[in-house]
Amino acid sequence: MADPGSPDAGLSHAGRPFIDALQFANTGSGAWSREANLQAWEAYLGEEFGTDRVSPYAAPARADDLTRLPPTYVDVGDLESWRERDLGEEVEYYFAVKKQADVALSRSGLNWLILRPSLLLDGPGTGTVSLGPAELHGEIARDDVAATLAELLHEPRIGRQILELDTGPTPIEEAVRANVPS
Fold first, then answer.
1. Residue 108: how many other CB atoms lie within 10 Å
2. What CATH number was assigned to the domain covering residues 69-177?
3. Could you give phi then psi for residue 76, rounded to 5 degrees?
4. Cα–Cα distance measured from residue 157 to residue 163, given in angstroms and rounded to the nearest whole number
5. Known catalytic membership, residue 94
6. Span 90-103, pLDDT tens digits
7. Quick one: pLDDT band at residue 42, thresholds 50, 70, 90?
8. Do 131 and 167 meet the contact criterion of CB atoms below 8 Å apart?
9. Per-residue pLDDT averaged across 148-164, rounded?
10. Taking the model in full, what pTM does it have?
11. Is the pLDDT reported for residue 144 higher than 60?
12. Which residue from 163, 175, 125 is spatially nearest to 145, judged by alpha carbons?
């Protein structure tokens, strides 16, 4: 969102878990627990934490009017790579809510891109990937995810797509070009 007269933002990302400070379910998992999420929101919102006075600038899910959002939405990082695992009711709830958000975004007038990387690994990247609308979920270095994201953000012809990313044989620049609509 932007106020009239303010600079236009080129990118907006309202990703998990910072869409809203409300906690309807324990959606924390792994390295980012529900407690960590609540602590982060409390530190960010200060006295507004836990009240209905939270600004939509701080929690985009509370906005009534989304017409002034930046023209591009990129969602990087998704738990789809965890779908094959039994993670419990709370994580399944998160998947359902995330799917609803993805559907709403895909039906919006925004120019969006959702990048779904496989299980993230620390360590050096290879500079080669598999990128497309449907890829097997394996593992991928964070370096390769970052390099792919940078390449995608500099390719204005890519938008309104969900792309999955895994380790693969194709150089990143070439993999991105292969996903430009004809």
1. 13
2. 3.40.50.720
3. -115, 135
4. 14
5. yes
6. 767 777 777 788 88
7. confident
8. no
9. 89
10. 0.58
11. yes
12. 125
